[in-house]
Amino acid sequence: MSSSPHAEQPSLGAPKIVLLACAVLEREIALHGGTARHIVETRLFEMGLHDQPDRLRAILQENLDAVDQRTDIEAVVLAYGLCGLGIAGLRPLRHKLVVPRAHDCITLFMGSKEAYAAHQKRSPACYYYTPGWNRGRRVPGPQRLEAMRVELGAKYEPEDVEFLIETEREQWALHNTATYIDLGTDDAKAEADYARKCAGELGWKFEHCQGDPALLKDLLLGNWDAERFQIIEPGMKLAHVPDATIMRAEPVKTALP
Q1: What per-residue string of b and e applies to 218-238 under the rule 16 or more CB within 10 Å gives b?
Q2: Of 114, 132, 176, 241, most Cβ neighbours within 10 A?
Q3: pLDDT tens-digit profile, the chain (257 residues)
Q4: 3-state secondary structure of 203
């Protein structure tokens, strides 16, 4: 995790917030409002934690508890989607928690869950690439396999490593298109070239989509309507619902004596 305080004064009318965000969105956040003066602190967490939902939940709850002790903010904002239920169960103590209605971060790149769903309907076999996921080498391509060999080689025997890599390849075989989405960061062109290269080496089609920063901007700037954002008040917790709303707030049950 990295943390950066913001020394500027709060923006007029915007609530003072602490931002907890996945590092995959670091440059997009900085570009589209993450240095706004009402954001008093930003905490970034390693990308890929959605692969370990229980760990993601524990890390976010620990940090939520810590920033909830502050008396100089009005809300905590989460730049995450549901992420494999990794944020389900989070509960604020003092300040309201604000979360975009999203299954994962691609919604934040697309601008809305409706735009994301429409694209998936048009291209159900695509795999999404973004600058952050590219930089982390968390996307299909030769460098991903190299990174996996190093990472897994420290934990498993060689034959187990090759089995896990082959399993990864089998998952990639379910896709046929590399869909690259950018929100105008300074590395967008270079990372588009990388995604195109990965597509060529995989034998996939390549698609370059210009993202929509509206949802991310409104998340950062405090424009929180109930249709696009879930607000969890103290005494409530975030819960998943299997419909278009994606999530809801429900009471925290207290244990009987």
Answers
A1: bbbbbebeeebbbbbeeebbb
A2: 132
A3: 766 544 344 445 789 999 999 999 999 999 999 889 999 999 999 998 888 999 999 999 999 999 988 999 999 999 999 999 999 999 999 999 999 999 999 999 999 999 999 999 999 999 999 999 999 889 999 899 888 888 899 989 989 999 999 999 999 999 999 999 999 999 999 999 999 999 999 999 999 999 999 999 999 999 999 999 999 999 999 999 999 999 999 999 865 44
A4: coil
What are the extents of the domains in the chain?
Answer: 2-105+214-251, 113-210
Q: What is the DSSP letter of 72?
A: S
Buried b (16+ CB within 10 A) or exposed e, 168-178: eeeebeebbbb
Domain 2-105+214-251: CATH class, spelled out: alpha beta
Closest alpha carbon to 145 in 195, 192, 200, 198: 198
Tell me the whole-structure pTM to 2 decimals.
0.90
